[in-house]
Amino acid sequence: GQVSSVRALRRDFSRLLMEHRFVIDELLTKISILSEESSHTHSYNPIEHITSRVKSPRSLLEKVNRRELPLDLDAIRTKITDIAGIRITCTFIADTYQVLDMLTSQNDVRVVEIKDYIAHPKPNGYKSLHAILEVPVFLSGGPTPVICEVQIRTIAMDFWASLEHKIHYKFAGEVPDRLVEELTRAAEVAGQLDRKMEQLHTEVHDSEPDGSTSEDFDDEA
Length: 221
Ligand code: 0O2
Prior knowledge:
The chain is of the alpha+beta class. The protein is 53% helix and 21% strand.
């Protein structure tokens, strides 16, 4: 009857969330391998930090309602692409593209969609690379493709986005015009900082003497 179908829905819903925890685990492993390998090979790690989250049941259901989707788990799984989310903060702009490329070139990673808000910022100044990726999770019944949203940005972009997010919530989306303008200007300043830091980095890198420095021996010791 109704009780058993509610019970079944609950069970399927919790399985859906579990699978999205698994896809995060799969991707975090890929990212940490790339990061560690880069440190080893180039003595350089393009990744500053990584955060991840599975959407809470409440905010997932709110989104389902907002989108007027049926309570059908197959529809939810394909239409709501940010149930699993990973945010990678990189040092420089070039690193964001490189990390995206290293992830999307892997055989078992299917690119569903890429949104390049770095090349094409949102009107408010928001910048980030967004990738909707589908990765197999190896369950007892066989590989199950699961979707994850990966956001890749620089430290400056992340700094801006977290403040903007807080302000957005504080004003429940009705941010006063003056603040919106100031935030857009702050996004430009963050962009200038990113370009300046990248330029300094290139200069320092190019002026490094060729051949090994004493640091190069650290790993061999
Ligand atoms: P939260 O609280 O971070 O989860 P959609 O996700 O489909 O509703 P859209 O525009 O198709 O919306 O997707 P998009 O552009 O890829 O943006 C999704 C996520 O990017 C957002 O998730 C934010 O995390 C981030 N984002 C996008 N635009 C902005 C922005 O202007 N400011 C900030 N701070 N973050 C942004 P959520 O679910 O909206 O929010």
